[in-house]
Structure formats: C-alpha cells, structure tokens
Amino acid sequence: MSTAATPGTLYQSPFRRHRTRVVVVGGVPIGGDHPIVVQSMTTPDTCRVDEVVEQIHRLEEAGCEMVRVTVPKPEDAAALTEIKRRIRIPLICDIHFDYRMALAALDHPIDKIRINPGNINGIDRFRQVVRKCKDRGIPMRIGVNAGSLEREFAMKYGYPCPPAMVDSAIRYIEIAESEGFHDIIVSLKSSDVQTVVEAYRLYAKQCDYPTHIGVTEAGKPPYAVIKSACGLAPLLLDGIGDTIRISLLGDPVPEIQAAYDILQATGRRVRKPELIACPTCGRLAIDLEKIIAELEKRLEGRKTPVKISVLGCVVNGPGEAREADIGIAAGDGKGMIYRNGEIVRRVLEHEMVDALMEEIEKWEREHPDRMPGARSSGKQRLPLV
Ligand code: SF4
User: Fold this and answer.
1) Are residues 177 and 32 in the same domain?
2) Which residue's C-alpha comes closest to atom 8 of ligand 1?
3) pLDDT in tens, 15-66
4) Displacement of CA 230 from its chain's centroid (Å)
C-alpha cells in the first residue's frame, strides 16, 4: 500500500510535548506548555554567602532562571535567607543524606527542595519533609540518581537500570500523593546517556509530573556538552523535559549557554537568530567565512528567532534559502536574497551583510507575533521564549 501523501498536502510534524501538570517554583511555572526552564547549581560552600551570591549574579546575567545550592550542614541552611534576599531568581535547596537539612531549609524563604530519596534512609523521614513542604507551599523535586538508587530497586532488576529508577520515583511520588502533596518535579539522572534516555521515556509513559532533565556528572567541556546534548536531544525531541540543567565540571556559568544552545538546536526554545552556513568546498563562490563572521557580529545580542541561511554556491543555496525565513543563494561574487521563500532582491558580495540586516529588520516588523515576549500563536514553526 502506498504511503505517499496527496500532492499539496501540508506535512504536519508529529511533535507533541509530554503532557505534564504545572508546578510553580518561586513564581516560575514549570511544565504544561511553559518554556523549558534553564537552571544551574552553585559551587562554593553555601555558607560563604558573598561568593555564592556573586556566582548567582553571574548566572542570572547569563540567563539562568533558577538556581540550586547544596545544604549539607546547619550553617548552609542558616545562610539561605540572606542568599534569597540578594538574588532575583528562585532558590532551590539540594538535600542528600540528612532529611533534617531539608526541614531546616524549609524554615527559610526558599522556592523548592530537591531530595534524593535513595539516600535519606527511611520513608518516615521522607514523609516528614513532604508534610513540611506541603505546609509551606514549597514544591519538591524527587531526584532519583542511578548512582545512589536504593538497594531494593537495584536488586529487583539486577542493577540500577531505567525501570529500577522509575520504580523508585513512582514509589516516592505515591508516598507524597498519599500525604495530599502534588507539587512534584521528577528527575532520573545517570552519567550514562542511554540510561538517561530510557529512564525518562519510561517515566513519561506513566506519569504527568513535570521533569527536570540532565545527564549527571557529564564531565569537562567541550566533551561534556556533547554528551549532555546526546542524552537530552532525544528527550527534547520526544517532547520530554520541563526544566534543564547541563552539568559541567567547574564554573557553572558556561552551563547556561550550553543549555540554551541545546534547546535552540532542538527547536524547543529559540532565543536568538539561527544561522545556517555550509562547510564550504571547492565550489565556493563567495568569501563565506568573512560574511558569516560579520553577520554574527552584527547579530550579537539580537533575540529575533529568525532562521537565516547563507550558503556558498547554487548547489543547495536556493533550496535552503527558500526554506529559511531569510536566505542568500550565492553564485560567483553575487547572490539572490530570499525572504519568506520568495526572491526579494539581488546583491553583490560586498552588499550582502547590509542587505541581510535590512531584510532581518523587515522580517521583524512583519512577524511581531514571533518576537520575544509575544504570545504564541500556535502556528509558528519554532516555539518562542
Ligand atoms: S553549498 Fe556549495 S560551497 Fe557550500 S559546501 Fe555545498 S557545494 Fe560547497
């Protein structure tokens, strides 16, 4: 039987986002149709308030939308009010081993608790934290890690595999629900890419609490960024993931750019122009590297979610230019500029950058619904932030 579409039928992408509830963290909604939230984690001792705040300010500047601090000792919990007072984004507390640190953190004006159910050693302790979160109206991330999964679940399947991780998450979700608590976000992290992908896919078939996604302990950039992208892209393209953290060794600020780049490359959150350029080859008809460098400079800081194609010759140039919002098909020191799939002008090589910038400005005026801050029309090709 033929599966060919009737000519002229508009192809519709089957993309669907994992349908999740919305959990609000310090005024920022996570899940549902809301943009995927970018977060990070600080590295100094949390009780060293000035250093922590300075790092959070740099994260905020880079576009971080919520931040996590670790709370392993009472001095760290004691610092939370002061940290919260001096930052603008929601503050999350990361708890391992000692449930009393979660209870202590909840005495401060924090916005979310992250708890690792595999290492707090007891369901009653978990219940106490859930009850206090509920009393204070503070959401909780149930953060399952393959590396610290309870023995019982690992034994059931022989090792800390995806079904074992999901079973663990579901157990703690059910306990929280039995306390009447539903402000839950779930993570299922591993340093193994395939485990991450399988675990979240399995979870998404069974639960509708929003997910925090990430490949944990990814290591040192640039390899760690590639590894994170390998784990997160399949999930994002499946519509899974409501908040994201890229775990990089060292200063966390580069995590933010990496997160936005992964979101942009998967088309999930577009915050800047997308430049399509060919690798160049012996057919090159213009100085493409120079043109792209100049264009990048002129586009720096611009948030327009426009797709611009600049290719070096007529092999793929016209086709890509027609599919982009704005494009140039170059040939022998000159080129044709396309906007919205139509040829709008012909230019010489030295006029290309200025002409492209003019076309970008026209495109911005033509598409106010796709500019940052505009409400989604539901028809746009790329989701807006
Ligand atoms: S678009 Fe042309 S110049 Fe660029 S890589 Fe392809 S064939 Fe080569």
Assistant:
1) yes
2) 281
3) 889 999 999 999 999 999 999 999 999 999 999 999 999 999 999 999 999 9
4) 13
Let me know if residue 286 belongs to a domain.
yes
Domain that holds residue 365: 274-370
Taking a C-beta distance cutoff of 8 angstroms, is the pair 328, 321 a contact? Answer: yes
- Ligand 1 mutation pick, 280, 310, 322, 349, max ligand atoms within 8 A of CB: 280
Establish whether residue 288 lines the binding site of ligand 1, counting it when its CB lies within 6 angstroms of any ligand atom: no
* CA 340 to centroid of ligand 1, rounded, Å: 22
CA–CA gap between residue 373 and residue 385 (Å, rounded)? 7
Position 1 in a domain = no
Give the ligand 1 atom nearest the CA of 281. Answer: 8
What is the residue with the minimal CA distance to atom 2 of ligand 1?
Answer: 313
Helices 352-366 and 288-299 sit at what angle, rounded to 10 degrees?
40
pLDDT of 373 > 70? The answer is no
Ligand 1, atom 5, residue with closest C-alpha: 280
The reply to whether 171 and 299 lie within a common domain is no
- Helix, strand, or coil (residue 92): strand
Contact yes or no for 107/81 (Cβ under 8 A): no
Flag whether 57 is in a domain: yes
The radius of gyration computed from the CA coordinates of the chain, to the nearest angstrom, equals: 24
Distances (CA, A) of 215 to 108, 247, 266, 332: 29, 7, 16, 46
* C-beta 280 within 6 A of ligand 1: yes
**Minimum-distance ligand 1 atom for the alpha carbon of 284:** 3
pLDDT single digits (tens) 296-307: 999 998 989 999
| Residue 53 CA to its chain's centroid (Å) | 23
- Ligand 1 atom closest to the CA of 282, numbered from 1: 8
- Closest ligand 1 atom to residue 283 Cα is 3
* Cα 283 to averaged position of ligand 1 atoms, centre (Å): 6
Task: Please report whether residue 11 resides in a domain.
Answer: no
DSSP, residue by residue, 330-381: EETTEEEEEETTEEEEEEEGGGHHHHHHHHHHHHHHH-GGGSTTPPP-S--S
Identify which of 35-39, 310-314, 380-384 has the greatest average pLDDT. 35-39
The pTM of the full predicted model, rounded to 2 decimals, is 0.90
Cβ–ligand 1 distance for 328 under 6 Å, the answer no
